[in-house]
Hints:
Layout lengths: L13 H8 L7 H18 L3 E6 L6 H6 L6 E6 L5 E6 L4 H7 L3 E5 L4 H11 L4 E5 L4 H8 L3 E4 L1 H9 L3 H24 L6 H13 L4 E11 L21 E11 L2 E2 L2 E6 L6 H20 L6 H7 L1 H5 L3 E2 L4 E4 L3 E6 L19 E4 L3 E2 L14 E6 L4 E3 L7 E3 L5
Parallel strand pairs: 1-5, 3-4, 5-6, 10-18
Antiparallel strand pairs: 1-2, 2-3, 7-8, 8-9, 8-10, 10-16, 11-15, 12-13, 12-14, 14-16, 16-17
Helix pairs in contact: 8-9, 10-11
Amino acid sequence: MSTATTDNPLNLEPRLQAIMRQQYPRFSDAEYARRHRALADVMARHGCDHLLVVTDHRTGNAPQWVTGWPGTVEAYVIFKPGEQMVMHMEWYNHFPLGRKIAQGVDVRWGQHQGIAKTIAELRQRGAQRVGIIGPLGVAKYRQLEAQFAMVALDAEYVRLRMIKSAEEIDWLRIGAALSDAGLRALVAQTRPGLDERELGAVVESAYIRHGGTTMIHYIGVTQMTQPHLFVPPQHPSPRKVCAGDVVSCELSAFWWDYPGQVLRTFTVDAEPTPLYRELHATAEAAFDAVTRVVRHGATTAEILDATTLIENRGYTVCDDLMHGFGGGYFQPIIGTSSRMAGTLPDMTLEENMTVVVQPNVITTDADESKRAGVQVGELICVTRDGFEHLHRAPRGLFRAGQAI
Length: 404
């Protein structure tokens, strides 16, 4: 049961409450300096004299990591160690807020020709070998290639995002608390007659009031006696909730660029059937088996081996069982022996990696339309000797209308 109060509705520690009280939350100067040093090291290794950090067509989070600005439409950040950053951005009505949030950055309106203005600035600086982080349309990239030797550094950026600083982990704690608020509302307010779209509105209304934004809310609703889905769909339908349904969900609310991810299952006006009780017990056991081996230095082979109890009980999975999370969808992406998530990555876990463990245990019916499944799991942080829960939502097979 939550111990939240009206003056602290998310039940957060004072330092996290202080972050949420800022007008536009921002990391410390020391944290940005850490990131900029890391980028300078990447540039030096690759022989780059300048770095271009990109959001284009609302895609790409690197400008936010470097400047604090979320890059709503386009943001082209020129970075060089020891010099003030320049950012060309769109649109003009976004320009005042961009200047306010991207402190210490020379923020310029792109005038709907941001890439041309960025190229002109790089030429004026005498740039020759330019690293690039973030997605860019082919036509724009070719304009850059015509002027400079371009070096793709996205893989380096991913490596920088995989290991979190203490400040980043605190922002993820807030994202987790916002996601938990969505879960609590969903469990408490689900009732027969609501449709799947209305369930999404219930989830969002629980955290938007606190400054959270939606990354995903996947909500699956089906009858336990005649299931028609085994993993929560990515888009809701107008199907209405009925007594005897089971609801599984995967919820992620952002605190700026830092989301939680919580996965749970609950029933509606009915006790779980023996099948769903067994599926859920297997998923919980798999979560415990995997997290028992999670620690700094744990291998992906150890993690995969810990999942074998799922197949031993006659089940499999649909969703990836583990993936890196927080700034992107990262390795290690791991399934199970019966549903591999591509080639098993040759890597070990590291302290301060954040990963989601999410056993989506399902039946193996030949007819997929008759398969049943549950969702269990959440975002955790790898520690030297184990892991830390970032979520506070309780575990369990819940009942709609229950306060958790």
